[in-house]
Design brief:
Length: 590
């Protein structure tokens, strides 16, 4: 609302901005309501989605209002809307498709929390687009009629137009000023800054050389950070900072750091003959094989801490002849109750359906150790002649470590290829489409690298945010690339200046609004929300850096980037642009 406030009582667009934010809120309500009605699970990670959708919706609003301000103020509202949609619709369609597709590709991951987040957020993105081009567009048209009638933004009463070159001007009673030279709304000072100062400075040869060096430093630091990133999530981070769980894990690390999980070894074979000495020996060999495991030259299992109810029972006075089936079974109930092993033996109807022993892991301190420990234990259990299963409640988290890297890479590669296809279809130049895809890969590398510098591990939580990164990294670059291609300027440098002039300010507005939308999460007591903020901050920062610094410079290196679409030509034999096709579709439909 602040961005679109004007001293001019007619050109003031406070209500337009209000309805733009309301449109994003309606998208969240509609998508969440629909999916909850359909029974889609709602995980805690989905709670961050409204902050994200608010940023996406406001981004599209900024682009549409910016295009509206480039139209003729005295033109028909229908023509102004056609011109606005001609310029903005394709651009926000590209970003909506890429954002939604990036989230839906996240459904390929095996993690339920990630699937839930991606489904809710991807659906909300589609609703956000739908409401932007219908609900918000309708209000923009109503606001255009008010401006055309020169009515006050608050009272809707007609006010006198300010006289040209007159000092008579009152923000309450006089309004409707515009640039008489162009017939458009007077540009904001920052727009003139992008056109007069920033654009020419950016396209200067010396500046281009500096930008290349800056990008080399960015890329080098990012690649270095990618090799430093750690896997896994600290279990205490799954609880709130104020929870006693955090203190528990801190004390455990301080006092019992040499010990890892106390893993249960479960005999799942109901036909296992516990009274058979040969069968017991086979089980002892299996337990011995666990105790002999080593990890990086260090013992993985404490040999003197294995707890076996069967070993204690056989060597106790509770059973006179453990090799006799009848004696073994009849004596077992009297042993289990006082010994405390009742929960370790499933003994029903004189049959042992399952039982468990415990082995104590040691020298397990990092997520990589936990992943390797899990793999070693499972391989050993599979090689054992007795049917065994190893389990600990923390294994559900350790399982993530085994697949999180491969799944992250898979999602990034698939999504990036999908972004390339969409860019080739909607941006009328293959080289510029490749630059958009390049920007996606570059931002992803940067975010992953700087995650390590900001002490964010690669886990299922940050994996969600990297999926977000794929969608957001294309937004700013796609807007600039499309504006560059669609520009009717003659040289590549002029196209770059024109692109940053028209979209530099909306990109800055969108970035700031998105960061403001999630900045409240930086003070949250939840690791999940803080991680969401950190990665969103990196994504938006690097996205803007690429959108208004790197990509405009890189595009000028290929002056052949034009706006030809296929072989279609107008009646004068000139190539028809994608913008012209959009304009014809809108006006003919009208």
């Amino acid at each position: 609302m602040l961005c679109f406030s004007r001293l001019d009582c007619v050109r003031n667009k406070v209500w337009v901005a209000t309805f733009g934010v309301l449109s994003a809120g309606m998208a969240v309500l509609s998508s969440f309501g629909l999916l909850l009605y359909c029974g889609m699970p709602f995980s805690m990670t989905v709670a961050t989605a409204p902050f994200l959708i608010l940023g996406i919706g406001v981004d599209d609003m900024f682009i549409m209002i910016s295009c509206w301000q480039q139209t003729q103020v005295h033109g028909d509202v229908e023509d102004r809307m056609a011109a606005t949609y001609k310029e903005a619709a394709v651009s926000i369609t590209i970003t909506t498709l890429t954002d939604a597709l990036a989230f839906y590709i996240g459904l390929l991951t095996p993690f339920g929390s990630v699937q839930s987040f991606c489904m809710y957020t991807g659906t909300a993105v589609l609703f956000c687009y739908l409401y932007n081009i219908t609900f918000f567009g309708a209000f923009l048209a109503l606001n255009g009629r008010r401006e055309k009638s020169n009515r006050h933004w608050l009272t809707c009463m007609k006010v006198p137009e300010p006289e040209e070159n007159s000092e008579k001007y009152n923000i309450c009673c006089v309004g409707g000023a515009y640039d008489h030279g162009t017939g458009k709304e007077e540009p904001m000072p920052i727009n003139n800054f992008f056109k007069t100062y920033y654009g020419p400075f950016l396209t200067n040869n010396w500046t281009k050389g500096f930008v290349i060096l800056l990008y080399a430093g960015y890329l080098g630091s990012s690649i270095y950070g990618c090799f430093q990133i750690k896997e896994g999530i600290d279990l205490k981070n799954l609880a709130a900072d104020s929870s006693y769980v955090g203190s528990y894990y801190d004390n455990e690390d301080e006092l019992f750091s040499e010990y890892g999980p106390n893993v249960m070894v479960v005999v799942t074979d109901s036909e296992f003959q516990y009274w058979n000495e040969s069968a017991r020996n086979s089980l002892d060999v299996c337990l011995k094989s666990f105790e002999d495991l080593k990890l990086d030259g260090r013992s993985l299992i404490a040999k003197d801490m294995t707890l076996s109810w069967l070993h204690i029972y056989v060597n106790s006075r509770a059973v006179t002849n453990p090799n006799d089936q009848t004696v073994f079974m009849n004596s077992l109930p009297a042993f289990l109750q006082p010994s405390g092993f009742t929960q370790d033996v499933n003994f029903t109807d004189n049959t042992i359906y399952a039982s468990r022993m415990f082995i104590q892991t040691v020298n397990v301190s990092t997520a990589v150790d936990e992943k390797n420990m899990l793999n070693e234990l499972r391989e050993t259990a599979n090689d054992c002649p007795v049917k065994l299963v190893v389990y600990h409640p923390a294994f559900i988290y350790f399982d993530q470590y085994a697949v999180v890297v491969s799944n992250t890479i898979q999602n990034i590669v698939v999504a990036t290829l999908a972004m390339l296809v969409i860019s080739l279809l909607l941006i009328p130049n293959p080289i510029c489409s490749l630059w958009v895809t390049f920007a996606i890969a570059s931002v992803i590398v940067g975010v992953a690298g700087f995650m390590a510098f900001w002490h964010v591990n690669l886990d299922s939580v940050s994996m969600i945010n990297l999926i977000i990164c794929i969608g957001f990294s294309v937004d700013f670059s796609a807007h600039i690339s499309y504006a560059f291609v669609s520009s009717n300027k003659r040289t590549a440098n002029e196209k770059a200046i024109d692109a940053v002039y028209h979209l530099g300010y909306p990109i800055i507005q969108g970035a700031v609004s998105t960061i403001l939308g999630v900045v409240a999460l930086c003070a949250a007591e939840s690791y999940i929300f803080r991680t969401f903020f950190k990665i969103m901050f990196l994504v938006i920062s690097f996205g803007v850096l690429h959108g208004i610094v790197f990509i405009p410079v890189f595009l000028t290196f290929f002056g052949i980037c034009g706006d030809k679409v296929g072989n279609k030509e107008d009646v004068k034999g000139r190539p028809i642009t994608l913008s012209q096709i959009g304009h014809m579709l809108v006006t003919q439909t009208r």
